[in-house]
Amino acid sequence: MAPIKPKLLAFLMPYNLGLLMSKFVLQLILATVFWFGWSALGVGVVYFDFLPLQYQQATLVKCIGLFLVLHVVLSVLAGALRSVLGR
Predict the structure, then answer these.
(1) CA–CA separation, 83 vs 70, rounded Å?
(2) Each residue of 37-70: pLDDT tens digit?
(3) Are 68 and 32 in contact (CB under 8 A)?
(4) What is the dihedral of CA 3, 8, 9, 10, to 10 degrees?
(5) Positive or negative CA dihedral for 69, 49, 43, 57?
(6) How far apart are CA 58 and CA 86, in angstroms?
(7) pLDDT of amino acid 14
(8) Disulfide engineering: 67 pairs with which of 10, 31, 58, 79, CB 3.0-4.6 Å?
(9) Which residues of 2-11 are buried (b: 16+ CB within 10 A; e: fewer)?
(10) pLDDT at res. 77
(11) Which of 26, 62, 58 is nearest to 42 (CA)?
């Protein structure tokens, strides 16, 4: 495999960094909306009373971590599925 030329690497780096930052910001916004509905509006306590109390009243930081981990896991699984299916 041929090494990547420095000019090409410098050209691609800002794009990859911007894409990574935009995905992080999107996950942050989605986690905040989810947390507001789940904890602040009380959806977790009212409709999911069978869950332990720590899951019914999740903090914002835990929701952000959950969304980021879920995104990474789904990305890895989608990549593995693509390589198995050959697409």
Answers:
(1) 20
(2) 998 898 988 999 898 988 888 889 988 888 888 8
(3) no
(4) 150
(5) negative
(6) 39
(7) 59
(8) 31
(9) eeeeeeeeee
(10) 83
(11) 58
Q: Which of 18 and 38 is assigned the larger pLDDT?
A: 38
How confident is the model over 22-35, as pLDDT tens digits? 788 888 899 999 99
Tokens of 48: 């999911």
The tokens for 78 are 């989608």
The structure tokens listed for 46 are: 């009212």
Question: Residue 69 corresponds to which tokens in the numbers above?
Answer: 């981990």
**Alpha carbons 2 and 11: distance in angstroms, whole number:** 17
Q: Which two tokens stand for residue 5?
A: 């030329």
- Asked if 49 and 60 touch (Cβ cutoff 8 Å), the reply is no
What does the alpha-carbon distance between residue 22 and residue 43 come to, in Å, rounded to a whole number? 28
